[in-house]
Amino acid sequence: MELDVYKTLKAPSDEILFKERKSKFFGYAYPIQHEDEVKTIIEALKKQHHTANHVCYAWQLGIEDINYRANDDGEPNNSAGMPIYGQIQSFGVTNVLVAVARIFGGTKLGVGGLISAYRTAAQMALDSAEIIEKTLQQRYLLHFDYSEMDKVMRILKQHQMEIISQKMEMDCTLEISVRKNDAILTENIFAAMYPVKIKKLDV
């Protein structure tokens, strides 16, 4: 697989329900961009399932620098959050939150039973979500005289570089986006094109 391609979710999954010895496990999967989103989603789930004894979850963010967390929400250590996280890894997705709300049915499942139930609910939630491939992008600012416009546009078209925004006045400023794998090639092309100035932007 290409280094600049990653898998994530297109949209939140449908709610799934897994039952185990009268306990109900409601599973959900969400695409997320920032850790801040996690708290809001979990709080909404706790309101929705106000009779739930536990809302356990795991999330992973990042493509090159991976950041993740698993939360057992009062279940025995590593019996909920880590089995959920294991499914995120198994599906090979990132920028994703998977949560499972458990409503206790009166029969204890034991640690092994919990691990199995949370794993299954997480797997069903991810199965019901649409997984898509995305490409890591690098953005640049190009600055050049109007007279260079044709030359620049020809290169952008030839290398399928996307124009994000443009400002045309006495001179021109373009913000472009390219695949991360093509970043060095892009820098070399425009660095060789005097008098075009190229500046790398932090995404």
CATH architecture of the largest domain: 2-Layer Sandwich
Topology as a string of helices (H) and strands (E): EEEHEEHEHEEHEEHE
* SS-derived structural category: alpha+beta
Low-confidence stretches: none
Got a strand count?
A: 11
* Average predicted confidence as pLDDT: 91
CATH overall fold name of the largest domain: Ribosomal Protein S5, domain 2
How many distinct folded domains? 2
Shape category: elongated
How would you describe the oligomerization state of the chains in this entry?
single chain
Our measurement of the CA-to-CA distance between the termini, rounded to an integer number of angstroms, reads 22 Å
The helix fraction, in percent, is 25-40%
| Number of H/I helices | 5
Largest sheet: 5 strands, antiparallel
